[in-house]
Amino acid sequence: MVLGEFDLIERYFAQVGASPSVKLGVGDDAAVLELPAGHVHLISTDTAVSGVHFLPDAAPNVIAYRTVMAAASDLAAMGANPEAMLLALTLPEANADWLASFAEGVRSASEHASLPLIGGDTTRGPLSVTVTVLGSAPPGHYLTRSGAQPGDRLCVSGTLGDAAAGLFLLEIDDTSVSAADLEFLHQRFLRPTPRLTLGQTLNGVATSAIDVSDGLLADAAHLARLSSVGLTIDPSAIPISVALRAYPDPAQARDWALRGGDDYELLFTLPSHAILPDDCTQIGRVIAGSGVHCDGVLNITGYDHFGR
Amino acid sequence: MVLGEFDLIERYFAQVGASPSVKLGVGDDAAVLELPAGHVHLISTDTAVSGVHFLPDAAPNVIAYRTVMAAASDLAAMGANPEAMLLALTLPEANADWLASFAEGVRSASEHASLPLIGGDTTRGPLSVTVTVLGSAPPGHYLTRSGAQPGDRLCVSGTLGDAAAGLFLLEIDDTSVSAADLEFLHQRFLRPTPRLTLGQTLNGVATSAIDVSDGLLADAAHLARLSSVGLTIDPSAIPISVALRAYPDPAQARDWALRGGDDYELLFTLPSHAILPDDCTQIGRVIAGSGVHCDGVLNITGYDHFGR
Q1: Nearest one of A190, A181, A166 to A59, comparing CA atoms
Q2: Is the Cβ pair B4, A122 closer than 8 Å?
Q3: How far apart are the first and last CA of chain A?
Q4: Pick from A29, A75, A118: CB nearest B77
Q5: pLDDT in tens, B167-191
């Protein structure tokens, strides 16, 4: 089935979500967004490419959901209120079934992350998705990667390594993992939950924050670099889920927790007097110096799409 | 030469343009933009794909310049003040020469369109570029595609067909065109100039506007559809440049003016009492009804990336 571009866009993406901030959505030369008085805009863009970020035959609703949530997670890391998103979709052919599934993923993510779709572009070409998200915050009130101070506590939300385990377990048939654990780990990869509410709670409290998308060690290295500090991590303090703790290869589970990406938890630094929010764990300290120091772990560096 | 992703981004894109609105640029989870009090945000995103929107061996600075300017043209069509842009670049390999040229195009476009680069994403994959532009306007004061009223005059800025001719003449060796005309037409394709100042002039005056990116007839059809009106175009009134008038095949020149894309002029409707701005031409009328009516021209429809 071949549909025209405008049919496609109108059919699947014209009305996904709504918000009083959105004055004009999909269909004109640009969308129009009006924020609460005096608020600033926070904007981030993320691209997912077939064969790099997802397999060419990945379920379209999963591609859509994960790409939107990965972008939304950047807003969480800034402590922003989600406002809206734009979606640029490049696809080799206009297949109605594929698009219906993709649109379902967009719709579901839009709802869960409170991000109405206000614009986009559909082009023909190798499959890729670029999501631009917009959030808001009161002026000067947002979290950055650059505010960590020696003496702060280094903390993380939720548990780490689940998404990497889930991805691995989607690709192989491992009968040693229980059905319930398998389902939990799969969902942690397939349906990530950006920590938008926690980000807003930390706004004005934490001294710095980043979302864990490249893996704990890699994202900690970004935070250390941008804040011009060192970070120590106590490997025994890293929060690991019941499901991942049950994994038969503990060394592998520990490596996923240290290096696995896609958990979309928040890594943040708290002044020593601040109260640790629910479902968060202190895993280390901010120190003077540079780099990330984690007992028994070597080769700590950021994930690099173009590195060797 | 292989560079790490972060090296790349920092080396080429960290500081492209500046503006008092930009509170935080490239390098954190999101960029932060603060608008003049009470202003709304206008946002648009545009993707250009290798082999679809440009040839795989196109000069990187031209790819960058044209993609940014195409996106900026959407802001012009809304009558917005340009504020900032984000750039998502997907490329098969990190070649320093290619990137240096691409960055030069970004820098030049950023300067000409007053759009500081505040964020982006660099990923590995088939070459494509997605540019998201942000503009501002006072609340309720922006141009849309949907306000044309029967009785309004249909007008266009500049001249049409030049970019299509320029693209054609880049690909063949036509000795019948003078060197000066060739240079003019080439530049109209290679270095488009979004009508940002004109858009702001028309803001509050014109009843509707769209930029001519798909071609006059196609974009007129969008305007007619979104405004629920008909449009008549007098083909003899269409403004054609001296260089294009000199083209040895007048029928081809006329077709470029009617159907050629990429001119990035503004097509707009003016109430009958409003003064026509400099460098603009009335080419028709808004009528009750639907569709675009142009004497002697058949098959008027929008350009469609997925059409047959």
Answers
A1: A190
A2: no
A3: 42
A4: A29
A5: 999 988 888 899 999 999 999 999 9
Average pLDDT, integer, range B206-219: 96
> What is the distance in angstroms between the Cα of A221 and the nearest Cα belonging to chain B?
12
Sheet-wide strand order for A117-124: A117-124, A81-91, A128-137, A40-49, B31-33, B22-24
Backbone angles phi, psi at A289, to 5 degrees: 120, -145
- Compare all CA atoms of chain B with the CA of A76 and give the residue at the minimum distance: B29
| Residue ranges of domains in chain A, CATH in brackets | 5-137 (3.30.1330.10), 153-294 (3.90.650.10)
- The H-assigned helical ranges of chain A are 5-13, 60-78, 96-113, 162-171, 179-190, 196-202, 216-227, 242-245, 250-259
Distance from C-alpha of A74 to C-alpha of A80, rounded to nearest angstrom: 9
B40/A34 CB distance under 8 A: yes
The answer to whether residues A198 and A254 touch, using CB atoms and an 8 Å cutoff, is: no
* B23–A93 C-beta distance less than 8 A: no
Q: Which residue of B has its CA nearest to A211?
A: B29
Q: Produce one character per residue of A264-298: b if its CB has 16 or more CB atoms within 10 Å, e if not.
A: bbbbbbbeeeeeebeebbebbbbbeeeebbbeeee
Q: How large is the ipTM?
A: 0.85
**pLDDT at B14 (0 to 100):** 67
